[in-house]
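hi! just following up on the protien thing from before. the input was this:
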Amino acid sequence: MSDEKVLERSRLQAEPTPSPALTNGSRVSYFPVSLVKLVVMHFCTWGAYQYYWFYKSWQLIRERERVDILPSWRTCFAVIYCFQLFEKIEDSGKLLHLRQSISSRVLAGCWVLLSVLSILPDPYWLVTLLSIVFLVPVQQQINRINEQLAPGHDPNKHFTAWNLVAVVVGGSVFVLALIVIFVVRR
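and the predicted 3d structure came back as:
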């Protein structure tokens, strides 16, 4: 066997072969969004954007895998289904030989813990907004997966008109609420 064929064979073995369950034609496998947009929208919508994120992720999984799931129900019960979603993303990354710094179970468990702390009294319930800290590593992995499987896809980093409305209105209300909670009440 010639050296060229040996090199070609070793190159092909080293390159990850995407699972058919991961690919969606030339489309992304999971919901793409830039980290900046994810964090800004999270705070300006008081955490509601993360549920939109869950919905869009499950919707893409349903389309790609052709499974009979209801993304809206999986979003409503995100505290249960986040474990499955985060694990799917972690497994997808492993198939592509992408490194993930934190276990999907740890990320999901911490996200759930912070999400349920919304029952705390003022101002302690605000800690629930820190749940975004545990979505950021998941989104980083999604962005790596999408870039590898659908190079040149739209990374969803631009703010739409509706996003800007949410940023202006929600961001203003957020800042005013913080002022009331931490300044006026004292």
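The chain has one domain: 25-184.
The radius of gyration is 20 Å.
cheers
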